[in-house]
Amino acid sequence: MGAVINAFNNMGEGILAFIFKLIFILAAIAFAMVLVVFLIQAWPFTVSFVIGILFCEIFYEKVSETTNIKLPDYFYINVEDFLQTFSQGDEEVERVRSDLEEKREAAEKDVAVMREALKSAEYQLEQVKAKRSLKNLFKRQPADISDRAAKALEMELGKPKWTQYIDEASQETSAWERLLA
Hints:
Blueprint: H1 2-41, H2 43-54, H3 57-67, H4 79-84, H5 90-131, H6 134-137, H7 147-157, H8 162-170, H9 175-180
C-alpha cells in the first residue's frame, strides 16, 4: 500500500510540476507577445531605443571585446559629451561678436565724419559755382603761393573739413587702410 501511495504522490508532484511549468511558459510567451505588440505600437520609442542601444558606450565595449578589434575613440562619445559640443566655444563666439560690433560702431562714426566732409565739399563747390563769372573764368591762375601766404589765406577763409582727407590721402596710409585695420 505504501508503494501505491508513493506512486500517486510522485505522479501528483509530476503533474503539478508540469502544470506550473506550462503556466510559466505560457506567461512568458504572453509577455513576449505583449512586448512585441507594444514595441510595434510605440514605434517612435522602439526606434529611439534601438538607436540608443547602438550608440551606447557599453554596446561598443562589448563589440570591441567580442570581435577583438579596437574601435576609434569617437565611438565612445556619450550623450553628455555630445550635448556639451553645443555650448563649447560660446565665449569665443561672443568675444568675436563684440569685437565686430566695436569695429562696426567705429566704422559708422568714420562714415558719419566722411558724410559731413562730403556735405562741406558740396557746400564749398556750390559757393565756387555761385561766385564764378566770365571774368574770373579766364583770369590767369596765380603762380606758386608761398606757404606763409597759404597759411594766412587758410586762417582768413577757414579750412573746410574735406581738405583734411586730402591731407591724409597724401600721407603714407590711406583712410581705407585705417578702416580695415
